[in-house]
Amino acid sequence: MSSLFFFSSRNPLSVAFRRFKICSFSSIVTYATEEEKSRFIHPSSVIHPNAILGDGVSVGPFCTIGPFAKLGRACQLYPGSHIFGNTELGDNCILMTGAVIGDDLPGHTVVGRNNVFGHHAVIGVKCQDMKYKFGNECFLEIGDNNEIREHVSIHRSSTPSDKTVIGDNNLIMGSCHIAHDCKVGNNNILANSTLLAGHVVVEDYAHTAGGIVVHQFCRIGSYAFIGGGSVVSQDVPKYIIVSGERAELRGLNLEGLRRRGFSAMEIKSLRAAYRKIFMPTDTSSGNIEDRLVQVTPYFQEQHKDLGLFPAVCSMVQSIRDSFAENRRGICKFRSWSGS
To answer: What is the C-alpha separation between 84 and 64, in angstroms, rounded?
Structure first.
């Protein structure tokens, strides 16, 4: 009997041999878990066997995932994106092409859910603080629902006792830089090329225009707005607009307050308080500290119809806090000659 006849499709032995191969292959496939079936990993990518990948993870070509990485469900890595070091991603995170998250340093980078990292963003790497001691732990924590666009850089903390923190629901546009130990709250918009030096605090609902620079240890209050091209070297109080080559106070962020649902009466009270503090008509009103003290009796005596809303108290406290011993003071008012 020739070999051709043995493997002929009509030969009963050939049919049995094919059935044996199919059954054997089927028995091998059943060993794969449901999670493994739902993942896609391109064969050109390098995934360390100790990395933990959740259900539905998709890894495109030429990606790298290190041994200490943990990826939540349905994360997507576009071609050429990389995860290094002790890095944890929550569910539904997306790394666009060229994005890098984490570094092979002591400490960790922890990222929440539903975050998008744009093309060539560099997140959670060593800081640029000259005081950083190699081998020290350093940390970065990012919340949920942030959109971090192309070429953004966010660095880890400079000391083991601190951490860089990004909250929830922030839009950080292209080419922004957030340095070591910064604290960025929730619902902020940082426009293109916003540069935050070390230890800067951005509260909630703040908005920066493009190309602005913030000096280290400054604080940007909630609902504040910073005009394009500004250099901020002192604190920006809550609810206020600043702008300029050396940023100066320009009034209340009225449009931002309206968009965020502040009532007409709240805005009217804030305007009255702003004028009392920064635009005094009485030459005997004293310096800034004196005028801050006078705000409450000012409303009780002259603006009983408005009332001292919590927002007014919050703005006054924000200004007062900026004059604490370890703070930088507030940006100057453009026609303000007082202390």
So the answer is: 8
Place of tokens 């009270």: 269
What DSSP element (H or E) covers 278?
helix 264-278
Q: Mean pLDDT throughout 38-45?
A: 94
Report the C-alpha gap between 254 and 36 in whole angstroms.
53
Q: Kindly list the catalytic residues.
A: 180-181, 198
CB-CB contact of 55 with 73 (8 Å): yes
**Whole-angstrom distance, CA of residue 304 vs CA of residue 306:** 5
Which secondary structure element, helix H or strand E, spans residue 265, and what is its range? helix 264-278
**CA–CA distance from 151 to each of 70, 85, 123, 133, 138 (Å)?**
23, 20, 10, 26, 22
Give all strands of the β-sheet with 100-101 in edge-to-edge order: 46-47, 64-65, 82-83, 100-101, 122-125, 153-155, 177-178, 195-196, 213-214, 231-232
- Cα angle: 123, vertex 64, 121; to 5 degrees: 25
Residues 294-317, buried b or exposed e (16+ Cβ, 10 A)? bbeebbeeebeebebbebbebbbe
Q: Does the structure show a pLDDT above 90 at 15?
A: no
Torsion (CA) 247, 252, 255, 261 in degrees, nearest 10:
130
Q: Tell how strand 40-41 and strand 207-208 pair up.
A: unpaired
What would the pLDDT profile of 243-259 be if each residue is shown by its tens digit? Answer: 999 999 999 999 999 99
Report which residue type is found at 85.
G
Would you say 277 and 288 are in contact if contact means Cβ atoms under 8 Å apart?
yes
Structure tokens at 248: 């100066």
Can you say whether the dihedral through the CA atoms of 124, 202, 200, 161 is positive or negative? negative
**Distance of alpha carbon 201 from alpha carbon 221, whole angstroms:** 8
- Please give the C-alpha separations between residue 145 and each of 78, 90, 209, 249, 267, in angstroms, as whole numbers: 19, 10, 21, 31, 30
What is the number of other CB atoms lying within 10 angstroms of the CB of residue 26?
Answer: 9
Q: Do the beta carbons of residue 42 and residue 64 sit within 8 Å? A: no
Distance in angstroms (rounded) separating the CA atoms of residues 307 and 276: 15
Q: What's the pLDDT tens digit per position in 104-119? A: 999 999 999 999 999 9
